[in-house]
Amino acid sequence: MAVKGITQRWVLNGLGLILAILVVLELGMAFIVRSYYYGEVYDSLNRLMWSTLDSFTKYAESSDAEFRIGCQQALENFQLKENVELMVIGSDGVPLLSSTGFPPDTSQPMDDYETAKNSNGNRIGSTEFNLTSGEHVMAYTALLSRSENTQNLRAIRMVVSLEPTDQQVFIIVAILLAVGIAIILFVIMSGSYFISSIVTPVRNIGQTARRIALGDFDARLQKKYDDEIGDLCDTINYMASELSTNERMKNDFISSVSHELRTPLTAIKGWGETLMDPSLVDPETFQKGMSVIVSESERLSGIVEELLDFSRIQSGRMTLKMERIDILAELGEAVVMFRERSRRENIELLYHEPEILPPVVGDRNRLKQVFVNILDNAFKYSDPGGRIRVDACEINCMIQVVISDSGCGIPAKDLPRIKEKFYKANHTRRGSGIGLAVVDEIVSLHGGSLDIRSTEGVGTDVIIRIPVAKMESDNPPEQIQP
Question: Are residues 426 and 289 located together in one domain of the fold?
């Protein structure tokens, strides 16, 4: 359908317009050529008539006998009788003599004579017609008498064949027609090649796009032209590559999330089955089992909440409750939450809390979520004996919070994509791959920025910047939606 559609539009719009223009030009040129050559014949007859007229004018007022004898002598002296028939017309409008030597054909139309009779000025007339033999001729008539005597309408008439002229006009028009046909053929050939150079790649692009839509992300287009079609091929190939990468990350994400959900569920199920038999459970074991169930349930809740946040961000439904807050309070609470984990995992947690920082306008729960998520990542990617440092300060009307760890770090090739959804640089550590994407979006909604600097094998620095509340922001909006 695409091939047919493009070709039809080209034929109707492009070729049809060119053909119409050429037809109009051909008809116009044919008319101009015919008018030019017929005009040349008319001018030639006009000059010949006026050079010959004096030989007959002197007999215009003579008697019929003298007129006939004088005109017969003038006809014999006419030099161009081989090419032009010269006729003498009597006062009654009937041809009397002819330069051919034969009696004139009185059955011929005499429109030129009638025109000369009815003209009040130069008393001449001309016309073109076909003889009874079918020959196309032009006739030119001039009255001999210059007086207003309507009884004396003697005239001479010249008749010349238009066959050579028509043949010349036909040859020229045929040449013009051949040129027009050649132009049409050239347009068709060049247009067909051009249309083919568009339609064929478009058809291939369509076929490849359908393969990609069906899940074949390895399908690629071969770039043949360094133009818009080539750019489109590059775009389709890039799209397939990105879809392939996203599909792989999505599968990794599903696998990771499944693993993240399975681990706490397995622990909860195991301890639940154990606690179902009271005879086998002592108080200490019961307490330990319930502690594991509660902690793993909280872990599951965190994973589900993270997924819900991600869904809200993707659909644009995340709502922030904005108010003036002390960001140090939220940061301090987040650090306190990880003190026990720090001791349990033998990772040093250092927090250098400043005495005071300006307030910010933000959602306290979401900002705490940001700090908790970043700290959780720092612990996940740090080994026992490592160190995590938290610093906060004001720089250029921005509250800057830096969370640094001495963990495994992020490879340089992964660093530019580390905040993308589903992307995980290290698959050996637990995590869904959407935490940083959620955190980055929350920080952006607060008008801030999230930067990550890392060196593989050395550690990672996460820099969070949130703008300081303006003095006039006494009544900040309660809710902001992305």
Answer: no
**Residue 273 shares a structural domain with residue 363:** no
Q: Are residues 261 and 390 both part of a single domain?
A: no
- If 0-12 CB within 10 Å is exposed, 13-18 middle and 19+ buried, where does residue 83 land? exposed
Q: Examine the domain organization and report whether 423 and 295 are in the same domain.
A: no
Same domain as 341, residue 469: yes
Closest CA to 154 of 109, 112, 101, 94: 94
Mean pLDDT of 179-204: 82
pLDDT in tens, 98-131: 988 888 888 888 889 888 888 776 788 999 999 8
pLDDT in tens, 6-55: 666 777 777 788 888 889 999 999 999 999 999 999 999 999 998 888 88
Rounded CA separation 463/476 (Å):
25
Does some domain include residue 82?
Answer: no
> Has residue 448 been placed in a domain?
yes
- Reference 39, options 167, 174, 129, 165; nearest CA is 165
> In CATH, what number is assigned to the domain containing residue 373?
3.30.565.10
User: Distances from the Cα of 302 to the Cαs of 240, 265, 373, 392, 426, in angstroms?
Assistant: 34, 13, 10, 26, 21
Query: Of 216, 221, 188, which is closest to residue 204 (Cα–Cα)?
Result: 221
Positive or negative torsion for Cα 315, 319, 325, 331: negative
Alpha-carbon torsion 13, 14, 15, 18, what sign? positive
Listed residue (371, 379, 395, 353) closest to 460, CA to CA? 379
First to last CA, the chain: 42
Residue in 400, 369, 398 with CA at minimum distance from that of residue 469: 398
User: pTM of the prediction?
Assistant: 0.50
Same domain, 293 and 396: no
Q: Are residues 301 and 415 in the same domain?
A: no
Claim to verify: residue 324 and residue 310 sit in the same structural domain: no
Q: Which of 113, 121, 110 is nearest to 148 (CA)?
A: 121
Output the six-digit token pair for 96.
């009397």
Number of domains in the chain: 2
Residue whose C-alpha is closest to residue 331's, from 377, 388, 406, 390: 390
Burial (0-12, 13-18, 19+ Cβ within 10 Å), 192: middle
Residue 462's domain comprises 318-480
What is the C-alpha separation between 425 and 444, in angstroms, rounded? 22
CATH number of the domain residue 250 falls in:
1.10.287.130
Domain boundary among 280, 296, 314: 314
Residue 366 lies in a domain: yes
* Residues 42, 36 contacting (CB under 8 angstroms): no
